[in-house]
Structure formats: structure tokens, C-alpha cells
Amino acid sequence: MKRMLLLLVIGLASVRGMLAQNTAPAAEKPFVAEYYYKAKWGYADEFLQLFKKNHYPVLKKEIEMGRLLKVWVEQPRYHTTEDGRWDYRVTIVFKNAAVANEQFDESALQRQLFPDQDTFKKEEQRRFEILLAHWDLPIKAVDVDAK
Prior knowledge:
Elements: H1 2-27, E1 31-39, H2 44-65, E2 68-74, E3 88-94, H3 97-101, H4 107-113, H5 117-129, E4 131-139
Antiparallel strand pairs: 1-3, 1-4, 2-3
């Protein structure tokens, strides 16, 4: 009986250790989110110009800080139907899910990078005025080889 109890305790400890090993690294895995922007017809280039001028430098600063790992922008090669159309997809790789979901106030970075806050705010307002739609999509990897 003592031997069986000892085996059970060792078995439970092993399972607990395996679970801890499997969950700890997951908390440190990069977290990916895609941000889609659909501009009014004829305004996609202006949106990109304002994005590159005012928002991309903030994202690059967050990469320097270690909060973000990578940022890239893509656009579709061909047109789609209007309901499925988007002009730019910005993919952001956060350090981990905790960083992605924490409250982070970019205003200090914005003031540091853009001392002329009046111009910055007007241009950011314009960037969103020319949008028809904007949506964020957290991405989860699917291991299709897993059983």
C-alpha cells in the first residue's frame, strides 16, 4: 500500500512538472495581431503616408523598447469584393500575450517623437477620417500536424 501511494505521489508530481513546463513557455510565446484598414476609395495612399509619418515611428520605438518584436505592412495584390476589401494589413508581433493585453499609453512616446502635437493630432484625426473600416484580429497558430 505504501509503495502504491508513493508511486501515485511521484506520478502526480511528474504530471504537475510536465504541466508547468508546458504552460510556462506559452506565456512567453510571441502574440500576433493583425490590424486591417479599409480606406475610402482614392484615399489609401494618403492613409499610408500618414501611417508612415505618425504611427509607424511609435511602433518602431516600441520595438526598441522590447514591447514589440516585429511590425510589417501588407496590401492585397488584387481587388476583392467591396464587403471583403481592405487596403492595408499591419501585423504586429508582441513580446507575449500579457504585453499585448496590458494597458499601454502611447501618448508619452507620441509627445517625444512629435513635439508639434497640434499637427500630429490633426494628421492622426485625418488618418482615421479617411477610413471606412478598421478591425483588429488576434492570430492563433494552429498545429495541423498535432494529433
